[in-house]
Amino acid sequence: MSDTDNVIIGRPTPAGDYKWFLFPGTVVRLLEYRDDMAHVQLDAGQDIWVDRRDVKPRRGSTKARTLRVTRAKLAATASSVNLELRVASPPAYVVTEDDREITLTLYNVSTSAKLRQISDSLIASATQSHERTRTVYHFTLTRPVYGYETLYEKGVLRFSMRRPPVVDPAEPLRGMTIVVDPGHPPIGATGPTGLWEPVPTLAVGLRVRDLLQQRGANVVMTRTTAGPVALGDRPIFARRANANAFVSIHLNADGDGQNPFRDNGTGTYYFHPQSRSLARSVQDALVPELGLHDRGIFYQNLAVCRPTWFPAVLAEGLFIIMPDQEAAIRTPEYQEAYARGVVAGLEKFFATFER
């Protein structure tokens, strides 16, 4: 497989959060089925749950054979540092990150191949270790984690760590590729007088586009019309555009039985730690523009926030089910304020990257 658009999602429990993103063709041990989920084992110390439809049982042994890394090297390009591992079939793996630390763990994998090192401005240190049934590659970076990607093709697993962008502090958005995602349709929340969320999110998104272009950014829109765009396609557009950042524009609504008068306002969501800084920058810029309660930033398992090659966030600027906020977002002036906040947050985020 040469494309990260097709992955098998693993969870720690049947209803748990997403944590593992496995290659199709990964061999694991099947433990049991439970309704529409399958319980599988990655190695002796880790079992997970995946969608039952993603499991294709094989005849013969129920034990996954131990894979072996026969070659390991680092290679540098202008955009990334790549760990290249020769391994006969796709291994089960997980990536963990924290500020300037990033770790690739391969399950049920052994190796005697020494990691061939390079000297590179992004890598402070690179280590390889074997822990029982796992092979672990750990990197300390000289900069905060900005993006990464894991691919498997023709017997090689390539783990790419993306270099942060080079920006002009005076014009931090110039040359950046920003994907703007006006949330929905299909679906979407409806305000008390019938305003449907996809209508104002498109108006805000188009204004974000215009403001970004005025600042020299390259803008990719996931939609520019009222027509529906599949949720899963939106992050794919961004990765294929080699985005530097992704921002999804939404309007919030509580579920049935909840009282929005108790907690409403502005909030911003992220999934991977690398996107937390962008979420904070966007949130801090939106709050004064919209003049609403600061709900803060939130970790949330959202499809548009799960890409790893670039920071990705989802902004819930206001609650469309609140009558005053619905009335405000109908107006071009408030749509402009929402757009200004998003652009100011992006500008603040990219300004942190030195030339």
Helix share, percent: 10-25%
Give the total of beta strands. 21
What amount of the residues lies in strands? 35-45%
The largest sheet is: 6 strands, mixed
Task: Describe the fold and architecture.
The chain has helices at residues 198-214, 233-240, 276-290, 323-329, 332-350, and strands spanning 8-11, 20-22, 29-34, 37-43, 46-51, 67-76, 80-87, 93-98, 101-107, 109-111, 115-116, 123-131, 134-141, 148-153, 156-162, 177-182, 218-221, 245-252, 266-270, 294-299, 312-319. The strands form 4 sheets. Strands 6, 7, 10, 11, 14 and 15 form a 6-stranded mixed sheet that branches. The chain has 355 residues and is α/β, with parallel strands linked by helices. Strand 3 (29-34) and strand 4 (37-43) form a beta hairpin. The protein contains 5 helices and 21 strands. Helices cover 19% and strands 36% of the residues. Helix 3 (276-290) packs antiparallel against helix 5. The mean pLDDT is 94.
Keywords:
355 residues, 5 helices, six-stranded mixed sheet
Structure described in brief:
By secondary structure, the chain is of the alpha/beta class. The protein has helices spanning about 200-215, 235-240, 275-290, 325-330, 330-350, and strands spanning about 10, 20, 30-35, 35-45, 45-50, 65-75, 80-85, 95-100, 100-105, 110, 115, 125-130, 135-140, 150-155, 155-160, 175-180, 220, 245-250, 265-270, 295-300, 310-320. It is built from five helices and 21 strands.
Helix-strand blueprint:
Layout: E1 8-11, E2 20-22, E3 29-34, E4 37-43, E5 46-51, E6 67-76, E7 80-87, E8 93-98, E9 101-107, E10 109-111, E11 115-116, E12 123-131, E13 134-141, E14 148-153, E15 156-162, E16 177-182, H1 198-214, E17 218-221, H2 233-240, E18 245-252, E19 266-270, H3 276-290, E20 294-299, E21 312-319, H4 323-329, H5 332-350
Parallel strand pairs: 6-10, 6-11, 16-17, 16-18, 18-21, 19-20
Antiparallel strand pairs: 1-2, 1-5, 3-4, 4-5, 6-7, 7-15, 8-9, 9-13, 12-13, 14-15, 19-21
